């Protein structure tokens, strides 16, 4: 298997990567009271030592009272949490790696199974996490304004701490995605609307605030998904024209790289073409894209949450699409959660040593 092209450098603004492999953001819940520990720093440093081109952190939440439903998800605010993150990025740089935090607000959530609840009710565009499931407050204009400022502050702090980029979490049914989705955004003010471009407004204001905070030369990534965890077949954009109308304003507002989340990267996004989500996003916007979803694995990641393991598979189809120019970067989740040396093994062609993914890996921060 020839994976040479995945090992070419990538340069955008001040972001310089030695290869095209990105560690996908993965929530680990190993940061008690929102503070990343030294073990979390070691976990990321090991992936940098293992030659991951770009590490995206697990989702890390902004400074809003109910931005998280989990006491062990890291914060990206407050002196102690930011000190923890400083150790993370310094460790990654020491090992020659590059990294960006995934900046997150969960929006309206299910209550966590631990029974922990945030100090204020969840907040979202219309109190809804999904159709017919209301579990919090509808945001006022003041809430929206303060949330936008909190996203900007997190981005400014990321840059100040020395991170190489940031990723805005706009996918998987969380706050920003709740604004995108008609069934969870019933607003009649400027943040709602019948069309996706109208419901883009919140995301665009977040992006503009972030861009104002980090300046023009700092690479900003944003993650999107058509699917929702409550509906795998959901499509925000039903055809390439709708995709163009959704994503072009996002790029114009200041996003440099579109991270297109799919469960399986080989699945075509629309009829009459084998292009996947990242392939179409690149085609309609011209912006660089990241693909993701079961790269090198036999099973998708929702299977992992249901306790399923996954076997290693070939990267041939991935390479075919990469070499065709469909996308610029490739994110890998579970293989890197299980094995910090996945990239070096792929590079050396040691495919017989790949571990795949076992559900046991979720219970710990795998360091070897
Ligand atoms: C344990 C776990 C936690 C995840 N947490 C996040 C997250 O915080 N943010 C996010 O955007 N995606 C999250 N995801 C999705 C991954 O980023 C990725 O898109 C998904 O696992 C598919 O990639 P894979 O098939 O290579 O694992 C998570 C996935 C897993 C397995």
Automatic annotation (TrEMBL):
Cofactor(s) needed: FMN; [4Fe-4S] cluster
Family annotation (InterPro entries): Aldolase_TIM, NADH:flavin_oxidoreductase, OxRdtase_FMN_N
Database matches in CDD domains: OYE_like_5_FMN (cd04747)
Keywords carried by this UniProt record: Flavoprotein, FMN, Iron, Iron-sulfur, Metal-binding, Oxidoreductase
Residue span, NADH:flavin oxidoreductase/NADH oxidase N-terminal domain: 5-352
GO molecular function, one term: FMN binding
UniProt KW 4Fe-4S keyword: no
Record-linked PANTHER family: 2,4-DIENOYL-COA REDUCTASE, 2,4-DIENOYL-COA REDUCTASE [(2E)-ENOYL-COA-PRODUCING]
Protein known as: 12-oxophytodienoate reductase
Natural source organism: Flavobacterium cheongpyeongense
